[in-house]
Write a structure and sequence with these properties.
Helix content is 50%, strand content 7%. The protein has a 10-stranded mixed sheet with strand order 8-7-6-9-10-15-14-11-12-13, sandwiched between helices. The protein has a 3-stranded antiparallel sheet with strand order 2-1-5, with no helix packed on it. A two-stranded antiparallel sheet has the order 3-4. The longest helix is centred in the first third of the chain and has 35 residues, at 132-166. It is elongated and about 135 Å long. The two termini are 49 Å apart. One of its GO terms (molecular function) is potassium:chloride symporter activity. Residues 696-813, 827-1073 form the SLC12A transporter C-terminal domain. It holds the Pfam family AA_permease. It is found in: Cell membrane.
Length: 1073
Amino acid sequence: MPHFTVVPVEDSATSNYDSLEGINWGESVGHGNHKEDSPFLSSADAERKTDFYDRNLALFEEELDIRPKVSSLLSRLVNYTNITQGAREHEEAENTEMSLRKVPKSPNMGTLMGVYLPCLQNIFGVILFLRLTWIVGTAGIVQSFLIVLMCCSCTMLTAISMSAIATNGVVPAGGAYFMISRSLGAEFGGAVGICFYLGTTFAAAMYILGAIEIFLKYLVPPAAIFHASDHHGGDSAILNNMRVYGTICLSLMAVVVFVGVKYVNKLASLFLACVIISIVSIYAGAIKSVFQPPDFSICMLGNRTLVRDQFDVCSKTVLVGNVTVPSQLWRNFCSSGNMSSPQCDDYFNQNNVTEIQGIPGLASDNMWGDYLEKGQILEKAGLPSVDFHGAVESVGLYVSADIATSFTLLVGIFFPSATGIMAGSNRSGDLKDAQKSIPIGTILAITTTTLVYFSSVVLFGACIEGAVLRDKFGDAVSKNLVVGTLSWPSPWVIVIGSFFSTVGAGLQSLTGAPRLLQAIAKDNIIPFLRVFGHGKANGEPTWALLLTGLIAELGILIASLDMVAPILSMFFLMCYLFVNLACAVQTLLRTPNWRPRFKYYHWALSFLGMSMCLALMFISSWYYAIVAMCIAGMIYKYIEYQGAEKEWGDGIRGLSLSAARYSLLRLEHGPPHTKNWRPQVLVLLKLDEDLHVKYPRLLTFVSQLKAGKGLTIVGSVIQGQFLDSYGETQASEQAVKNMMEIERVKGFCQVVVASKVREGIAHLIQSCGLGGMKHNTVVMGWPYGWRQSEDPRAWKTFIHTVRCTTAAHLALMVPKNVSFYPSNHERFTDGTIDVWWIVHDGGMLMLLPFLLKQHKVWRKCKMRIFTVAQMDDNSIQMKKDLATFLYQLRIEAEVEVVEMHDSDISAYTYERTLMMEQRSQMLRQMRLSSAEREREAQLVKDRHSLIRMGSLYSDEEEEVVEPVADKNQMTWTKEKYEAERRNRNNAPENFRELMSLKPDQSNVRRMHTAVKLNEVIVNKSHDARLVLLNMPGPPRNTDGDENYMEFLEVLTEGLERVLLVRGGGREVITIYS
């Protein structure tokens, strides 16, 4: 039974963010690092005395010293209260100094007041009043429906995932940050917490910009400080006005939040009432417009919409008494007021002025979209118009688009009106039954807002003229708010209501964002944010508020609501994406602590919500999406490398370790069945002098063969002593890892230091892997240039490695001409992979092409299998049997049997064998006389020393006679001089012996096989993309190693890409299911 530690709630002044799950711990040190033996609460001494003398529990008296009774535990859990860090404590702190010692009231808020209405207030916002009409006019009813459906579906799926997480235990304030950090770990939690904080901060900037737009455009237009000198400077003047007034408004709001949060919370009900009244007035106005449409006329010149506040009468002329005189509209378009000789705009002369109703009732047809470019004039289809460009000076008289519009832009602008679903989970400490209220209240709020948005789209599209809808700022309706023209009883209801609602939403955002940052800072997972965890004596986050104001000022300086909305959309979508991911991961991992009371969730819904969040991010703005993901990624990496270690019981780490241990123990039970066999590869890499991978295409080939499946170990050997080469080992390992990342090889890297390279390779072959996760196949490169090198160590190390793999019963693959192998970016659209099946190797030759064809590089290649028939074999029956065998293996391949008849050994074969043996004999004599050559070099120059280059396929233990260290000074006698001269005179005799040498018959037979087989392979497979061939085994006698290398060269001559394969002595493919 665990140890319980009780801390009286009233004695704790620390924030709930300081504790693991909102419970204040008596023996905690730091934040989030709690003792495992104190998972709950402790009891008081007085209560312990009564517990100890309980006669019915006398048997457990000693245990009751450290463990409470179940009844005591339950009473404390029931009385435990989780008060959110927020307005409540700060109100009490400002009212009285003794507030910290007050016993907190038990939470008593229900679903309606605690979740539903706060979510409504946060979801409904500035976009509904200022931009939804413009979105409907630009996109049309159908596409607007799609935009609303996409955004609201995303938030609904997120709400389902959030409800599951929120009902899986107590969720203190911090909302999404707390839920994700405790579900996915500190790295994800910190990254998403910062994204949520930035989204809330930019939301404050957006609400302030919306309030200033209402103030300057519709409430007090004369208050503008900057004015446009011409129609080109209008945009810059508007932006500058927004910046000045936005900064002033932000400063005032920050002062209000700093002085007292209680005023913000007391005004919350007023702001919510403004939102509800405004929405009701829209519905009332829409119903009224069906029977009695309001009089908002639009003046059209041809089919172009005119700015109505530039003139008084929608007519070219007016009748004053009995005289027709030019109207104000005429004077705007004409330079001369004389009607007899007017100098007017061409378009004005050729087109008539008409007046149409801005709200025709239900007669509008705005089903389809009309996207505009920046500066394009708003036109109404169906009105007669003579197309003339008109004068440039007249452009300012028309209503035109201020920005270029597209479907993706509208998605990014609308999405903030669907956010705000976290309001309920942030108040979980104030709820009577949080695990019931949060799901019901949040889902009902999203359903309500979605219905309002859908109905608003229909009402706006049906009741308001399309030209008015596309008029963002109401220029065509005398600078009235477009949605206000539809409202009842007066447009001022919407204007005033939307102004107060946006101001209230801005205050709420400025109140919530600093507390979220303070929560992240107090968790101490991001070191550079620690300063923001401090505040006033009552806990008010002063420094966090200052940073929030500075970041919000950046949004104010952008000064465009349409530019700020996609930014906060990105951050909220990132947050919602990880909420869905947290729910999906917890559901799939089935961690023991995952027991949410909300049962109507599924991992597929979470993945769908996650996919929609990601899609909406890139639909809205792909470059903002990349920036948001980079910010989250950098924070994640920073926490991973620099952040404090936290153990919050997130399911991923613990379960990953348990799963890995369990799997390794299962693999220890025995070798895998043939059906489960796949190449677990050990790749032997060669590094150059600069510690760079010499043949990176070796890794490319392995990545194509593995396709991310199974085990891959990349090994390399550094020659030297471990104590002296540790730094070089680390650098080599990092270089190999970098190349593995480039070539997309998923696996492990191991670099060993050995005094001899062949010993290092043997160590790798023996010891790589862990338990059952060990390699069964070795991939190594071909020793290129071995013929030209006088040093035999390279090819001798190669043959030694072949022998080691054979002794360890491992399969071996040697890609020859690996530099010609395709990269991962190439695609073979045709061609064949030819398999030459000479001897049975357990089925490796059959399996490898099948695995290669799983990769996109080789997918289009066909497979051909060739086998060799001797004189006494029935080639027709062999072909039938092989085709049947392949059919049972479920491998599609063409089959061909090649007949090799007995023939006399050709002169070419004899000469080739002779050349091979003469070369071997010559090199052997050269190596035997190396001591004499070294002595001559010593005589010429004493200061020169022998520099030996070590490589992966080189070794010092060969029979190269090295100069003796103690003979640096040599004394020559007459006898030594005569012996040296005789050795030189014997050189012609040695040459004559080489010329008279006769080749060994066994070597001639082997060379004959290699030559004949090579002729057949080149004839059949000269144009193949890849040739797979059985690799002959090395000779038992080491004296024939050099001849063995020559046989392999002859066997593969004339082929571009060859893969030599040697089986490991077990079956790797089966016909059974």
